[in-house]
Design a protein that fits this description.
heterodimer, A: 113 residues, mainly beta, 6-stranded mixed β-sheet, 5-stranded antiparallel β-sheet, globular, B: 114 residues, 7-stranded mixed β-sheet, 4-stranded antiparallel β-sheet
């Protein structure tokens, strides 16, 4: 089983602060990297799927970057709002088993009003 | 609205009993997945199916069984062989397009032992 690591495990920020998290994954055999947001009492929601080294994706105040050569992705939230409070999951596919998605443990974000 | 429906939301199992968790989707997705979440851990893949009448074991398949008789449905049976079944179970689906499609998730089933 491959390890997908996420840091930090949890984060508390003040409303209006910008923040970022890291997802680390094995760089060999890379196929795709996914980010999901999971709010309490809801189901996980897809944010981004990235496949190319250097990819950058943006959705409102949330953006993500991808470095497949060194095996990491950053998720940025600009001007955090209380509604951004959630667990952020990253997940990874390998070329040799592209239909299997391996999830990291998540980063729990709390935005304090 | 299209989506994934999991039922029941809460389920209790007696020792030695098999229980089945339901997962239905109306998104016309080919691929369906079952994950298990334990406290402090990420989602771990139990079984997945890319097409009707075919499925593969994930990383923690022991003690579980699935069927995929219809495109819309992918039920998971937790058998008595699963010695630690207490967990949160999530079902997901996606378009079958070489793994670069996002997964859509249900609301989950929480299984506990009586």
């Amino acid at each position: 089983i491959l390890n997908v690591e996420q840091s930090p495990q949890s984060l508390h920020v003040q409303e209006g602060d910008s923040t970022n998290f890291t997802c680390s994954f094995p760089s060999s055999n890379f196929y795709a990297l996914h980010w999901y947001r999971w709010e309490t009492a809801k189901s996980p929601e897809a944010l981004f799927v990235m496949t190319l080294n250097g990819d950058e994706k943006k959705k409102g105040r949330i953006s993500a970057t991808l470095n497949t050569k060194e095996g990491y992705s950053y998720l940025y939230i600009k001007g955090s709002q209380p509604e951004d409070s959630a667990t952020y999951l990253c997940a990874f596919n390998r070329k040799t088993s592209y239909d299997k998605v391996i999830f990291g443990p998540g980063t729990s974000l709390s935005v304090i009003p | 609205d299209g989506g994934i429906t999991q039922s029941p939301k809460y389920l209790f199992r007696k020792e030695g009993q098999n229980v089945t968790l339901s997962c239905e989707q109306n998104l016309n997705h080919d691929a369906m997945y079952w994950y298990r979440q334990d406290p402090g851990q990420g989602l771990r893949l139990i079984y997945y199916s890319q097409i009707v009448n075919d499925f593969q074991k994930g990383d923690i398949a022991e003690g579980y069984s699935v069927s995929r008789e219809k495109k819309e449905s992918f039920p998971l049976t937790v058998t008595s062989a699963q010695k630690n079944p207490t967990a949160f179970y999530l079902c997901a689906s996606s378009n079958r397009d070489r793994g670069n499609q996002p997964q859509h998730f249900g609301d989950g089933t929480r299984l506990s032992i009586l």
